[in-house]
UniProtKB/TrEMBL annotation:
Name of the featured protein: Cytochrome b5 heme-binding domain-containing protein
SMART domains the UniProt entry points to: Cyt-b5
Xref: InterPro entries: Cyt_B5-like_heme/steroid-bd, Cyt_B5_heme-BS, FA_desaturase_dom, Fatty_acid_desaturase
GO molecular function, one term: heme binding
Any one GO cellular component localisation term in the record: membrane
Amino acid sequence: MGDLKISTLNLTKRYSNSFQLVLMVHSHRVFRGFFIMLLLFHMILLLVPWIEIKIPAWPILKIIFAIGASLWPFPTFDMLSEENLYLRQILMKTLEISVIMLYAIDLLPKIFIWRQNALWKFVNIVILSQMMFLLPVSIIAYDKVALPSDTMKLRIFSISFCFVIVCEILSIREQKSLRFLQITQRQQEKQRQIKQKIQEFSWCEIVKHDSPADCWVVIKDKIYDVTQFLQYHPGGNMILDGAGGDCTALWYSYHPSQLTKQEPPQQYMIGKVRDYQQYYSYDDDFYQNIKEEVEQKIPRQNWQNHWVLFVKGFLCLTGYFACLYYYVNYCTLLSAILLGFFAAQADVNIMHDGNHYAFSSNKTLSFLAGYVLDLTFSTSVVYRRSHNFGHHSCVNHLELDRAFDTTFPYIRLHPLQQRFWYHKYQHLYIWIIYTFVNFTDVFGTFDEMQWFSNYPCRRGYVSKLQVFLQIIVKLLWISITLIYPSMKFSYKVAFGMWFVYNAVHSYNYALYFSVNHWTLEAGVVDNQNINQTNWGKLQIQNSSNFALDSFIWTHLSGGLNYQIEHHLFPQFAHTRLKEIKSTIQVKAKQAKIKYFEFPSFLDALISHYKLLKILGSQDKI
């Protein structure tokens, strides 16, 4: 029995080494160089005149060609007469052999060694085989039917060129696979060394590792060096948004329940946080059970890519650009109102889902959807950090939620914030402040970038390119919406309409967020009254929904009326949140947690007004 175990272990080890060996050979620069030479050879065939060139046939060449023709498994044609060799036929046969050999030696092994299902392998083999057989068929067609030489050359070249591109794509993929295997081995060795002695790091040290070249993240009290894993992360560069900070909440809310049951990959762990303070508990099965039930009801692959969201996105973008054109060329009151409305609609319907990676399962498409915020002249990189990390991770937590920092001292939203004399009027002047939300959002970009380093869990990577692009975005915004209309019309008209456009944009954007958390029914927490409270339960207690049965408010607010569902499942397309409402309501009732829903948007707005009035006149609620 022991000999059987040893043999099995050795076989597994040999297979693993063979797999890596095949990848290494097929990723070698000689193969890639051969692809380039083949492509050049095809280009030469395409460019040179196809005239009949005969060269003398030596006896030894006749024997070689005769043997080759008898062994070649495909239909062929004569390449020599009794006295001469036909150079054109030789070149065509060389082309045919080179492509078929690449198929047999390079592509087929790649398909078989990849750990994909049988259907994937079958489809790829059929497609590539058809492409490969087209080449000798085309050559025979030319020889027998006498196709025009130009048509024939282009046909052969296009087939071969597609083949070479496929080879290049596969080579790039397998090189990444090989690098990933090598990285895994290095990380396993590093993990073995770490186990011998667990290191502790302070936050002052951790926050320095916040770039693509040196990326650490904290999950619970453990530190993970994910620098080498960045390019393989299914969520793309989302990790960089929390580089050098605490990503515990994002780990649990964005990853499958099957994965969060376990610890993050331990080969990346390099140590622990010294004097780590964990405010929330993730060990309770409450949130885990909700995730499992939702994943069973709606598979994760169906959480995004909703056709309704794509249609909404197209309509919102079309409306935005049409209104921008209307505003720039006419600068009327109606154009300013419409531009502000559609800018806000693009933000809440496209940008919001995109920056939560809920727009599409394709990470590039979700990133582009997130950058719609830059099209409306704000900044997506700041939004992802301050919203995803500075709000969703710690909703209505006084010391951590970024919303309290950006509103105080103008507005008092938490009982523990200092109350000034003018706060007793905040329920009145708040409606003036809301007209300037878009101004502060746009002009506060660079201040927000500096804020990233103020607290560890909010730190994230910002490249110089992103800073430069934001300067360009702001200059374009001023030029398109203010300077150009001032030159075309008058500065009085331009400034007036510019203010209207920003005020409409601000109101349509700010009010949806305000009524979700700043109401009498939504809870608040702080460092003094929170002690390992379950993170999932806090998302429900500190949020409130409104008008869930309203088709209009669901689409106008970009699904923000389903705020509780959105906070528990930020990667869920907002057009599908209503499908999981009942599941969360049942779980909340079973756990005796308040799940609150306002009947209408007006009711939610009135509650927001009452909260501001009470906090402005009383120290405590």
